[in-house]
Amino acid sequence: MNIKILTRLEECALVVLSFYLFLTLDYAWWWFPLLFFVPDVSLAGYLVSPRVGAIIYNFIHHKALAVILYLLGSWVHFPGLQLAGLVMFGHSSFDRALGFELQPSTSKGK
Predict the structure, then answer these.
(1) pLDDT tens, residue by residue, 59-95
(2) Are 99 and 8 spatial neighbours (Cβ–Cβ below 8 Å)?
(3) Contacts of 1 (CB under 8 A, 6+ apart)
(4) How far apart are CA 12 and CA 97, in angstroms?
(5) CB 94 within 8 A of CB 15
(6) End-to-end CA distance of the chain
């Protein structure tokens, strides 16, 4: 099987996992799809400049940040952080399943 297809299937499985974990929280199911595309608001950073846009996009779409938010929310018993982490994780996985990756910085110095 093509590695690209296999990787995209893996990302789809992570979207399903994020929704499954979301269902363990005490929120109505419709919160997940309602909030699912909120991370794309980070694209507004491109209105400032390509560099700022890439930095903000990468920060919001980094799965490690999503995992940290989820785990922190679990640790301090704050479901809102868990919700944010799961939505970010699911959204970022969905983006990667569609082929959208983290963005390279446009600065010339690096």
Answers:
(1) 999 999 999 999 999 999 999 999 999 999 999 999 9
(2) yes
(3) none
(4) 6
(5) yes
(6) 36
Q: Please give the Cα distance from 85 to 24 (Å, whole number).
A: 13
Query: pTM score, two decimals?
Result: 0.92
Name residue, tokens 């479901």: 79
Mean pLDDT of 39-63: 96
Answer left, alpha or beta for residue 100, where phi above 0 means left and psi between -120 and 50 means alpha.
beta
- Two structure tokens written together for 40: 């794309």
Please say if the pLDDT value at position 108 is more than 70: no
Instruction: Report the chain's C-alpha Rg in angstroms.
Output: 15
